[in-house]
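INFO  loader      accepted 1 record
INFO  loader      residues=544
INFO  predictor   begin
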Amino acid sequence: MDTFTLSGQIVDIIEKRIYPGTITVSEGKITSINPDDRIQSRDYLLPGFIDAHIHIESSMLIPSEFARLATVHGTVATVSDPHEIANILGIEGIRYMIETGRQVPFHFYFGASPCFPATEFETSGATIEAKGIQQLFSDYHLHYLSEMMNYPGVLHRDPLVMEKIAIAKRYHKPIDGHAPGLKGEEAERYIQAGITTDHECFTLEEALDKIRYGMKIIIREGSAAKNYEALHPLLRSHPSQVMFCSDDKHPHELIEGHINQLVRRSIVEKGYDTMDVLRAACYHPVQHYQLESGLLRPGDSADFIVVDNLREFNVKSTYIKGRLVAQEGKTLIPRIPASIVNHFNCLAKKPSDFAIKGRPGKLRTIQVLDGQLITNQVLMDAKVEQDHLVADVKRDLLKIAVVNRYQEAKPAIGFINQFGLKEGAIASCIAHDSHNIICVGTNDEDMCAAVNALIEHKGGISVASRGQAYSLPLPIGGIMSADDGYKIADEYVILDRKAKELGTTLGAPFMTLSFMALLVIPSLKLSDKGLFDGSRFAFTDLNV
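INFO  predictor   done
INFO  writer      dumping tokens
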């Protein structure tokens, strides 16, 4: 690898100073940084951005394609939870992500996913025991224990949960949290078990409570969950305790920006201290997760970006391991071929499979909250036709179904409010966390067509209306594609537009849909086994 030098205004986020200088890079490392007052360049050189918690799979792209898009925005590393592919393919899926990521110049720091399935109340494609966590740390040298979603298991000191935590501690690995809404004594007990971060806080009160007990808060702004507005005051009150993440980022939004958007927003719109913001975006993840990514110091990996100013942070170029990987808005990382892996074993459905008998009365209904993963539980009057419960578009009472993709089983049926479809149906095989097929619709025929389009392609997302189905196939695990990331983004935009043409006003209908089966997020969700009350962590009846 060639030796080269680069001059500009050096942004030292550790010492919190900016000075003119020249960096020298050799063999992928920074060998020296020399101050030089003669330098007139107004380009700024600073460490690259790090997403402190993301599921790469949510981009619908394999790791190598994700890297091609993210580096354009100055992202050089991700703290990546391969939880989604793990639920489908187990350890083999995690290995696939690691090996695919290694083929491009990018820092993917994968964690050992402890919760697949996330709960015992759903069907997943794989499970993991404590010995599996041991294997992931010993054989694959993973960097941390991924989000401990089973917070009730932690609170009740479930032996299997605590054994997984103990293994991470033996390897001196940090442990990520996932406990939305947890406060007070329960939050303290959760943190005392060894949990060090949480990206699920949706109120400032909750975040401050967890910080009080020693936890770091990762401020999330993704395609579905947007918590920045609630949590950004932490950048002033507790700047050393925060990081940034996207958690889930759909491809068309990844094209628009990544962590750089939160940096710009924090400095330009909110007026926070530039160094505090940059430390949250660059330094704190390296410090907390003990990452090898460089921080613009002699001896560090040469991972840095060049920007034209410290307000808009327009990224002129991105370097990773001394290699120029993006320049002037264009990726320089070549595409790589990838094999297809999957786990999909269900047959086509009939419209009658989505019919559900019922009687007049109140229905426990999932109420969507746009921009949030949490839902409300509301009671709505059933609409009954010929002894069957049906959707009522006028009241925005729609049907929701979850179809087991791993084996033949009758779909689970429920009802949902504030999704907004006026006709047709949309479906997705991206359905956290077990990634069965999830569908919302106004009638059984279109729901069946949307689901069958995914069964035909063994994964993806789809829209159906008036007998016509449109789909974006995602053949890798049923949730990712190895195609060009920009092409996938364009195709996603088409499906997103078609979904919105059916009436929904949700900002990201497919992303929102994908979380309606996430049982560990209150309040009411649907798994392939039935309606689930996340507040009580138990199944519940559709009829009151």
